[in-house]
């Protein structure tokens, strides 16, 4: 009898899926967020642990808890522990990642330059807004003046 009474007092298992009703979802978020923040605080006090908790709501609002005086220092400590070990144990992987990021950066730069070249040739102007078209026109006028000036200098020689 007692076991049954205890089971009925508990909440039971909750199916983990997105809550469809917006108001219910907001209430649940608020209650669980507060419970999580409370647990983080309790863990830091009871176990003398350095705890940092960052929560963003679905609207992008920030909620945070940090047991130390500075969230930034805790995040730097985390970064050193997580990525410092990665760097020490896998330098080749890090170099590959760096090279890949450099490749992506250069690829993006080439795409920008190619788009700019096409625009200078009067192609692919559709996506440009009025301000961008004005800037392009101004740049072309400057280039045309330089060409004409060079042409005059060459003709006088």
TrEMBL record:
Q: Which residues form a coiled coil?
A: none
Which keywords has UniProt assigned to this entry?
DNA-binding, Nucleus, Transcription, Transcription regulation
* CDD domains reported in the protein's UniProt record: MADS_MEF2_like (cd00265)
Give Gene Ontology CC terms: nucleus
Where located?
Answer: Nucleus
Q: Which PANTHER family match?
A: SERUM RESPONSE FACTOR HOMOLOG
Record's protein name: Sepallata-like MADS box transcription factor 3
Organism of this sequence: Escallonia herrerae
């Amino acid at each position: 009898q007692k076991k049954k009474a205890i089971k009925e007092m508990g909440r039971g298992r909750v199916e983990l899926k997105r809550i469809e009703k917006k108001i219910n979802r907001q209430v649940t978020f608020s209650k669980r967020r507060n419970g999580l923040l409370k647990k983080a605080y309790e863990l830091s006090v009871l176990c003398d642990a350095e705890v940092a908790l960052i929560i963003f709501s679905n609207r992008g609002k920030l909620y945070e808890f940090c047991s130390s005086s500075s969230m930034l220092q805790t995040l730097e400590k985390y970064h050193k522990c997580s990525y410092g070990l990665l760097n020490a144990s896998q330098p080749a992987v890090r170099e590959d990642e760096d090279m890949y990021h450099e490749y992506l950066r250069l690829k993006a730069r080439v795409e920008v330059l190619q788009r700019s070249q096409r625009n200078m040739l009067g192609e692919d102007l559709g996506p440009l807004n009025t301000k961008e078209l004005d800037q392009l026109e101004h740049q072309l006028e400057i280039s045309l003046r330089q060409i004409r000036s060079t042409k005059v200098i060459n003709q006088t020689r």
